[in-house]
């Protein structure tokens, strides 16, 4: 039932609003209506009764055609037939009544629509609804970051007309309102560059997007928009010209700094160290408020043992507990050797991406213990850690050494990228990560040397000298995501076999695991057994009542080979991703791992 409009204050009974009252009233009125209908047929019922009375006296007797029916039942059958006729007439009346009432309802609805339409025509036209600015901003941002780079970032004149994305076309169109241009520009990263920054910036695409707006710092003061207020604005610094850059940065000290990227460095280690120290000391108050601090290009850094001494001094100094670190960022990317220098503003960093520095000579190498010692500067706050270029660790450290475990109490995601297996075997057992849920490991090949490893050391590390699912489970049993690339077929196959079934004690390895990723730059038909092994992992874990089912899986594409296994994965894995490989090798001559 349609409610009475709330703007009119009618004083009505509960029959208009209360469902229970309406139901009770309808029941009562139905009974009354049925009695009234019966009363309208009283004359026919009287006629029927008189007819039967006459039949009983023989005045109006009529025979039935059913000779086999008992004469005592004939009058009862005749009465039922006559009552059925009466009820049929009553139903016809009810049908016509319902039809009439339905027609009346349709007429009322049409009249209502007509009145509303007339009222709307007399009203002033209301403005069409608008998307909230937040939704429009997300749409524009998604359009920008999903675009492809063409030409050189920051140099729109080098872009081909057909390659320009819709946002660029809107910004360059003279008919686009200024308000819209300003709104779009706020969603596109603006890179403010210091003196000397230029050249090829393709290495920054991951951070800047395909076509950022490049604005020299000297021009930023003249820009009518205050670009420094935007959270997406990035300050790109060239420390190779430290004196000029310091002057430029001093001129914007009163402006907000959200993101700082350091692009170019002095090549002299002594000048480099002094430049960073001066930069941190002079602008520490600005660095602690950053959203991101990043060194996209880290290759020039080489190992200088002075930074290890500095890290040791910080760890042993009582001043460590008193350093007022207020760094707000959730992300920083810088070489390992710069952690001590930037420690005053990074001790509370939660997400760190770092690299192992190069070695100047074979005698000067960085050990696993020293790497962990430097990481301990910020270990209490880290939730996400990635260490790359582990192959730069010296050959003298490529031996299994039992080490004291160091605590990373909040670490949830951990990536070891391009590490020699023996070094990874030293690092992983030395890290206590009770909250670790996501783990990624990429192994690079090394010379065979396992025969030289003493059994005593292997037993202390709970390993036979090779990384395995069993070893990783003993260290990080609560993993939900894992991505391991050994590059060795037998090792990769054994890893998958361990995941596909419970161990001898009927315990599953990584029972919480629901996401896996395996990658390879080269796909060979010899890897087909690995595809079958992955399918077995998925099916067996789905059938288990203990282990979780695999929800996400990313593996190399096999060009539709072994479609049955691919179909199995497509059927049972909700989020399945096939990654195209760099090259496909057909044949069985090679037997690589992932």
Structural description of this entry:
Keywords: Coiled coil. Residues 91-118 form a coiled coil. Helix 18 (489-499) links the parallel strand 13 (481-485) and strand 14. This protein is α/β, with parallel strands linked by helices. It has helices at residues 19-40, 42-57, 71-122, 133-145, 166-172, 178-187, 205-208, 217-220, 242-251, 269-282, 284-287, 306-316, 339-346, 368-375, 421-427, 455-460, 469-475, 489-499, 528-543, 563-572; strands spanning 190-193, 213-216, 234-238, 259-264, 292-294, 331-333, 351-355, 384-388, 406-407, 413-420, 431-432, 438-444, 481-485, 515-517, 522-524, 552-556, 575-579, 583-585. It is 40% helix and 13% strand. The two termini are 66 Å apart. Among the domains are: 132-294, no CATH class; 306-467, no CATH class. The chain has 20 helices and 18 strands. The radius of gyration is 41 Å and the shape is elongated. Helix 10 (269-282) runs parallel beside helix 13 (339-346), helix 18 packs parallel to helix 19 (528-543) and helix 19 (528-543) runs parallel beside helix 20. The chain has a 14-stranded parallel sheet with strand order 2-1-3-4-5-6-7-8-10-12-13-14-16-17. The model is unreliable at 151-162, 314-325, 449-463 and 584-590 (pLDDT under 50).
């Amino acid at each position: 039932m349609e409610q009475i409009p709330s703007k009119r204050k009618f004083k009505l009974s509960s029959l208009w609003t209360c469902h229970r009252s309406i139901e009770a009233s309808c029941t009562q009125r139905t009974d009354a209506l049925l009695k009234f209908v019966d009363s309208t047929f009283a004359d026919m019922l009287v006629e029927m009764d008189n007819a039967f009375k006459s039949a009983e006296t023989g005045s109006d007797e009529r025979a039935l055609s059913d000779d086999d029916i008992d004469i005592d039942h004939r009058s009862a059958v005749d009465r039922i037939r006559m009552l059925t006729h009466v009820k049929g007439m009553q139903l016809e009346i009810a049908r016509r009544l319902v039809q009439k009432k339905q027609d009346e309802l349709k007429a009322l609805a049409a009249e209502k629509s007509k009145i509303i339409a007339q009222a709307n025509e007399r009203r002033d036209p209301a403005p069409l609804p608008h998307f909230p600015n937040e939704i429009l901003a997300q749409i524009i941002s998604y359009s920008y970051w999903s675009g492809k780079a063409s030409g050189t970032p920051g140099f729109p004149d080098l872009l081909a007309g057909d390659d320009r994305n819709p946002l660029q076309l809107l910004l360059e169109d003279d008919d686009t309102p200024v308000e819209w241009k300003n709104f779009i520009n706020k969603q596109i990263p603006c890179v403010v560059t210091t003196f000397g920054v230029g050249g090829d910036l393709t290495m920054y695409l991951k951070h800047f997007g395909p076509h950022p707006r490049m604005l020299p710092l000297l021009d930023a003061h003249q820009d009518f928009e205050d670009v420094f207020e935007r959270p997406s604005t990035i300050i790109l610094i060239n420390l190779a010209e430290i004196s000029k850059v310091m002057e430029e940065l001093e001129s914007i000290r009163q402006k907000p700094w959200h993101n700082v990227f350091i692009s170019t460095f002095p090549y002299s280690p002594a000048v480099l160290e002094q430049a960073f120290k001066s930069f941190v000391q002079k602008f520490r108050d600005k660095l602690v408020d950053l959203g991101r601090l990043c060194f996209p290009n880290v290759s020039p850094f080489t190992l200088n043992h002075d930074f290890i001494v500095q890290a040791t001094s910080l760890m042993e100094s009582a001043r460590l507990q008193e350093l007022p670190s207020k760094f707000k960022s959730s992300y920083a990317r810088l070489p390992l050797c710069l952690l001590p220098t930037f420690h005053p503003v990074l001790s509370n960093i939660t997400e760190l991406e770092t690299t192992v520095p190069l070695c100047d000579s074979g005698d000067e190498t960085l050990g696993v213990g020293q790497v962990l010692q430097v990481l301990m500067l910020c270990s209490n706050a880290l939730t996400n850690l990635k260490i790359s270029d582990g192959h730069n660790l010296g050959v003298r450290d490529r031996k299994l050494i039992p080490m004291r475990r160091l605590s990373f109490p909040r670490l949830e995601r951990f990536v070891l990228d391009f590490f020699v297996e023996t070094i990874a075997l030293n690092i992983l057992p030395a890290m206590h990560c009770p909250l670790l849920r996501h783990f990624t490991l990429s192994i690079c090949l090394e010379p065979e040397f396992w025969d030289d490893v003493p059994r005593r050391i292997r037993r202390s590390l709970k390993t036979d000298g090779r990384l395995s699912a069993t070893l990783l489970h003993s260290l990080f049993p609560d993993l939900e995501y894992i991505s391991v690339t050994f590059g060795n077929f037998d090792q990769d196959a054994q890893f998958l076999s361990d995941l596909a079934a419970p161990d001898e004690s009927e315990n599953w390895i990584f029972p919480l695991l629901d996401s896996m990723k395996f990658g390879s730059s080269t796909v060979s038909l010899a890897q087909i057994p690995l595809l079958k092994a992955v399918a077995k992992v998925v099916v067996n874990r789905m059938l288990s009542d203990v282990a979780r089912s695999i929800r996400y899986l990313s593996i190399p594409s096999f060009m539709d080979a072994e479609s049955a296994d691919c179909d199995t994965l497509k059927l049972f894995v909700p989020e399945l991703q096939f990654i195209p490989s760099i090259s496909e090798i057909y044949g069985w001559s090679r037997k690589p791992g992932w």
